[in-house]
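queue> pop job 88
queue> type: inverse folding (structure -> sequence)
queue> payload:
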């Protein structure tokens, strides 16, 4: 059965069983991917995934059931299983289904033709070739990946909602390995586009190889307190690691220090953090959240002040506010949680900041000049073990470059940066306007912060 046919069958069986409050959530997609090693196809795979979750509310209690089998028999079974599960729930928490009345944005559908398998392989081989041609030191271990994927979300409920979001995109990844004097160094670059033609393979290869080459000869750095410029990618990594602290769900469970901080100053004046489900450059644009609430752009932090936490219907009801449209499901079968869409720190120039910030170029050199002496952190590692999302504390392995006389100096590695995410937000002195995203979801410009603890080579 198609999703549409299955939906009609489920709603019919729901009515036969006297259900008046229910929801059907669908998530499905497919992807074709190619992996290149040396100049040959190392792997080619096609993956498809699809599933639905039926949720009903009976006497205030929610029952869930899910399936990947869209058949008439399974439609009936799905309803009956959810009904049975609702009867066994002991929780007294209030359950919600969203009502009609929201105004939903319309996202332009990607009308680019789907690339054939041969075209995907050709693009991946071309990227691998560009990686090897970018520098004579590029060696075996260098790999290229190319993926084309499509995804669909749909939700209907007994309140009359019937929504669908669909998107597709091409994703490229180049991983370069260079060798000099018996030592190997790696670098990578990832880019997304609506189709293969939008991917500049030469630029992707160049960026990956330059990152690898820039690490050649990396030395150590003495321990101490430093002025640090975090690169856009490094700061985006931190933001992604601590994004959960902005969840009202975790705050209400006592797992975020931002609980009850709405309206309070939590960051420097230059910090505005935005969640935008339809960010202009995003390949994944959404019009509704995991409960069917209209998704919209909002400043979670504005000029340093916490404007709002991110809410779904349940957390919003507890807080006495409206949902921010951030209900989420980790998979089609998961219970409803909270998460951001496209979450980023606004760069200089996008907010009403100082004239000095607005004049910053699209590269971090201006921040180097501002720092004078310090460290430019380009990569943070060990985030699962070295970052505590509840306290905000972090101690992370890093690599980057010295900042010497206001410029980018020698590469350095094997050092640790330590601090606290909440304090770091308060102490940001200046922003760049070189906004960049990790996997299209979490973004930041480069930032400058002083007095960061660095553990390196001790005298």
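queue> result:
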């Amino acid at each position: 059965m198609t999703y549409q046919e299955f939906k009609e069958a489920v709603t019919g069986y729901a009515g036969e069983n006297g259900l008046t409050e229910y929801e059907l959530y669908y998530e499905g997609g497919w992807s074709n991917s190619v992996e290149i090693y040396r100049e040959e196809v190392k792997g080619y795979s096609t993956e498809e995934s699809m599933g639905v979750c039926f949720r009903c509310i009976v006497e205030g209690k929610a029952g869930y059931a899910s399936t990947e089998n869209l058949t008439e028999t399974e439609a009936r079974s799905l309803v009956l299983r959810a009904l049975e599960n609702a009867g066994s729930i002991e929780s007294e928490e209030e359950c919600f289904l969203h009502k009609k009345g929201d105004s939903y944005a319309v996202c332009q559908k990607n009308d680019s033709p789907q690339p054939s398998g041969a075209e995907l392989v050709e693009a991946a081989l071309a990227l691998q070739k560009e990686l090897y041609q970018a520098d004579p030191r590029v060696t075996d271990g260098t790999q290229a990946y190319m993926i084309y994927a499509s995804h669909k979300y749909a939700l209907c409920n007994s309140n009359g909602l019937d929504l669908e979001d669909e998107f597709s995109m091409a994703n490229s990844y180049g991983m370069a390995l260079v060798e000099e004097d018996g030592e190997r160094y790696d670098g990578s670059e990832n880019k997304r586009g609506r189709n293969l033609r939008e991917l500049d393979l030469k630029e992707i290869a160049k960026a990956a190889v330059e990152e690898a080459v820039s690490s050649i000869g990396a030395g150590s750095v003495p321990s101490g307190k430093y002025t640090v410029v975090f690169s856009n990618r490094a700061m985006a990594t931190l933001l992604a690691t601590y994004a959960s602290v902005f969840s009202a769900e975790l705050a209400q469970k006592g797992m975020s220090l931002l609980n009850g901080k709405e309206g309070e100053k939590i960051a420097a004046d230059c910090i505005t953090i935005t969640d935008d489900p339809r960010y202009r450059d995003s390949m994944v644009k959404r019009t509704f959240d995991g409960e069917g609430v209209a998704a919209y752009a909002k400043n979670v932090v504005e000029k340093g002040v916490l404007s709002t936490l991110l809410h779904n219907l349940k957390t919003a009801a507890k807080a006495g506010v409206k949902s921010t449209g951030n209900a989420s499901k980790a998979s089609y079968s998961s219970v409803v949680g909270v998460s951001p869409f496209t979450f980023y720190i606004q760069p200089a120039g996008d907010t009403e900041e100082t004239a000095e910030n607005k004049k910053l170029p699209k590269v971090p050199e201006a921040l180097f000049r501002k720092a004078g002496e310090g460290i430019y952190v380009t990569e943070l590692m060990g985030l699962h073990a070295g970052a505590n999302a509840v306290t905000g504390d972090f101690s992370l392995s890093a690599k980057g470059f010295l900042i010497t006389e206001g410029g980018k100096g020698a590469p350095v590695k094997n050092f640790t940066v330590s601090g606290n995410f909440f304090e770091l937000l308060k102490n940001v002195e200046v922003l760049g306007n070189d906004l960049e995203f990790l996997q299209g979801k979490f973004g930041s410009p480069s930032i400058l912060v002083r007095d960061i603890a660095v553990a390196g080579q001790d005298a």
